[in-house]
Write a structure and sequence with these properties.
Number of domains: 3
CATH superfamily of the largest domain: HUPs
CATH topology of the largest domain: Rossmann fold
Strand content: 15-25%
CATH architecture of the largest domain: 3-Layer(aba) Sandwich
Radius of gyration: 29 Å
Number of helices: 22
Shape: flat
CATH class of the largest domain: Alpha Beta
Oligomer: single chain
Structural class: alpha/beta
Distance between the termini: 63 Å
RNA sequence: GGCGGCGUAGCUCAGUUGGUUAGAGCGCGCGGUUCAUACCCGCGUGGUCGGGGGUUCGAAUCCCUCCGCCGCUACCA
């Protein structure tokens, strides 16, 4: 496995800057949690860390969105920035710099970069002809298009023909290719690296790096009729944070980033090609590793995905977890952080399910980690008057296990393999639990083997201390709580990686037992409850088993069911399962309804079909398309058959 | 269409350069223990490593082919 770590005392790590047109969601959160975890890990190591995240605020899309809301773009951006900052605070993310592309130092940096590229001949004035997708802020070639829509988002593109500046990406293609080939750790994971190499191999076009002047964007320094292309503008943020171009001392200190985390969508075109090529042109060192991770999607057929678009917002999930488990919010948030980094190999896509989350919560957090603490402290309370004993002879028996875990975690973290790191920590937890069973301190007490008893309990407490440190990057609040319960907070002892060794727990301090950190969850009952919540507003479930709840006639009466005739049916672009239907239910306009039927039913079969529509269902936007109702279909998770009627009825007829 | 990847126990996945009886966690079964949130510890259950063919003394691991899934890329004059 490629290692991204090397022995220096500086660690600069970045997330992408997030486009302010979006509210924070799991995509942003996942990247930022992972970055926070790496940042915390390197801080533990005693390294100086610069962890940056921020917002990308320029671009036509922002200007237009602001205009639509009747506010100035800056005001619009300010508001979204607050939403991001709040989210990061809630998710226990501690960044060092929140950079906004509208900040003065960034504007200076972006213009300076542009100027230098012009001076070096890497940027030249040309003529741009082609299309532009405003929502994606992406230039498209004729060949990229399907009809007149963007291949990525399916929305209409705009034709542009104007003078524009181009960056000579082509000039750096060979060097870049060679660099990637010679540095396996530069683009990770390997599968992505292959894709990038294939992309470069296919031939690189010079990239358009300016647009005709807009008020909102950063002007091109040499030509005020032009603005800097928002993607170039955005990429420069990584330089800005490191003090480019004027603060040479800061720049020398931090540059280049050791790790840049991004989502897989912005790897090929931007971070793996344009970005390093620009750095080459600027004669600035390249980042150590650009790591592209995958996406979180909802489990296939999972009803949760339908209920609300924001359900995959980690903080939202945490709040629901609080309801289910009675854990504190801080614990729930850390549990989500744990789940996200433990469940799926970093780099691959993952599917979120409550069953998986709750299983991890019970098995890993409550049973293994939480219970280790909660079985140990009472022993110390009872047998040793809550006082951490002297290690004494025979102590240090878990030293080998601790060393092994420490080494493995180090290797894993150096390879950005969160999952492997957590597995190693959990092996240590298991070792500690086993150690207690084998040494049975309650028997030692019974037989008055006090020296041995003290040694055993010391070892376990000491091991818990090490575990608290090791989990700190992943679950900072929980690490602190364990620290507190061990009585270490009162001593001012710091969590440092160097002390992840046996026999470092100061004797003589008093433990401070608290309530169990992870209240165990009744998974089956919780899943049913979650399912119920979702289905309440969704669908009468034709369940094989008798439904556990009854509804009143009155409740049933609130549901407006109508006969509808399908007048149009198309697939939703970019969605495998979704059909966009226009259904006449006797109103002035046919209803637009999105249905997850595309895998089972050909849209053509649906034309003129009569269906049953839930007419007063709260509208929802699914995959960017508004759905103003629901079609009844048979099937628990996947639709099997459509509910229809045995003779023709006028659209809009009431169903009772 | 081209390139790349994946398909391993009921579920989620590890399996280094081919080498003794294919591993982990969860689940399930049995036993132990009682300090603990019915928890922990031990043992066990369970796989024709997608199908077929080939190379080899020997292949989950290399080659070919077929099937299924995914990603990137290109859309055919």
């Amino acid at each position: 496995m490629a290692q991204v770590n090397s022995a220096t005392d500086k660690f600069y790590i970045t997330t992408p800057i997030y486009y302010v047109n979006d509210r924070p969601h799991i995509g942003h959160s996942y990247t930022t949690i992972a970055a926070d975890c790496l940042a915390r890990y390197h801080r533990l190591q005693g390294q100086q860390v610069l962890f940056s995240t921020g917002t990308d605020e320029h671009g036509q899309k922002v200007a237009r969105s602001a205009a639509q809301q009747g506010v100035a773009p800056q005001e619009f951006a300010d508001e979204v920035v607050e939403a991001f900052k709040l989210m990061w605070k809630r998710l226990h993310i501690e960044y060092d710099r929140f950079i906004r592309t509208t900040e003065p130092d960034h504007v200076v940096a972006a213009q300076s970069v542009f100027q230098r590229l012009v001076d070096s001949g890497d940027v030249y004035l040309g003529q741009y002809q082609g299309w532009y997708c405003v929502p994606c802020e992406t230039y498209l070639r004729e060949s990229d298009l399907e009809a007149a829509v963007c291949p990525q988002c399916g929305r209409p593109v705009e034709q542009v023909a104007e003078p524009a500046y181009f960056f000579r990406t082509s000039k750096y293609a060979d060097r870049l290719q060679q660099y990637i080939e010679e540095h396996p750790e530069f683009i990770m994971p390997t599968s992505r690296r292959n894709e990038v190499l294939a992309f470069i191999e296919a031939g690189m076009h010079d990239a358009c790096v300016s647009r005709s002047r807009t008020e909102w964007d950063i002007p091109v320094p040499v030509d005020y009729s032009q603005s800097i292309y928002v993607w170039l503008d955005a990429l420069v943020n990584y330089l800005t944070v490191a003090g480019y171009p004027d603060d040479q001392q800061t720049f020398q200190t931090w540059w280049p980033p050791r790790v840049q985390l991004i989502g897989k969508d912005i790897l090929t075109r931007f971070h793996a090609t344009l970005w390093p090529a620009v750095l080459m042109a600027l004669q600035v060192p390249l980042p150590g590793t650009i790591f592209a991770h995958g996406w979180w999607i909802t489990e296939e057929g999972d009803k949760i995905s339908k209920s609300k678009g924001n359900v995959l917002d980690p903080y939202n999930i945490a709040r629901q977890l609080v309801d289910i488990s009675n854990a504190t919010t801080a614990v729930a948030v850390d549990s989500i952080r744990y789940f996200l980094l433990r469940e799926v190999t970093f780099g691959l896509d993952g599917s979120f399910s409550w069953a998986a989350l709750l299983t991890r919560f019970n098995a890993d957090l409550a049973n293994d980690l939480g219970n280790l603490l909660n079985r140990t402290l009472p022993l110390v309370e009872r047998y040793l008057d809550s006082k951490v004993p002297q290690p004494g002879p025979g102590a240090g028996e878990l030293a080998d296990q601790i060393d092994k875990a420490r080494t493995t975690v180090q290797q894993a973290m150096a390879a950005v393999s969160f999952r492997a790191a957590l597995e190693a920590i959990w092996q240590l937890i298991a070792a500690a639990n086993k150690f207690i069973d084998e040494r049975a301190p309650w028997n030692l007490y019974k037989h008055a083997k006090l020296v041995e008893l003290e040694a055993v309990l010391y070892d376990v407490l000491d091991c818990i201390r090490v575990i608290a440190i090791m989990i700190q990057p992943f679950m900072p609040a929980i690490a602190d709580e364990i620290w507190r319960q061990l009585g270490l907070e009162t001593t001012g002892t710091q969590q440092t990686w160097a002390t992840c060794q046996a026999l470092q727990l100061p004797p003589g301090i008093y433990i401070q037992p608290g309530a169990p950190i992870f209240p165990r969850v009744d998974i089956e009952r919780s899943l049913k409850r979650l399912q119920g919540q979702v289905e309440a507003g969704e669908e009468t479930q034709p369940s094989a088993q008798p439904p556990p709840v009854t509804i009143t006639m009155d409740q049933f009466g609130k549901m407006e069911l109508k006969v509808g005739t399908v007048v149009e049916a198309h697939r939703v672009r970019g969605a495998d399962k979704l059909l966009r239907l226009l259904v006449d239910i006797g109103e002035d306009q046919p209803r637009q309804i999105v249905a997850g039927l595309a895998e089972q039913i050909n849209p053509r079969e649906l034309l003129s079909q009569q269906v049953i529509v839930v007419a007063n269902l709260e509208p929802a936007t699914i995959h960017g398309v508004q759905s103003q109702g629901m079609i009844l279909a048979v099937g628990d998770k996947e639709p099997i058959a459509l509910v229809t009627i045995d003779r023709e009825c006028p659209p809009g007829s009431t169903v009772r």
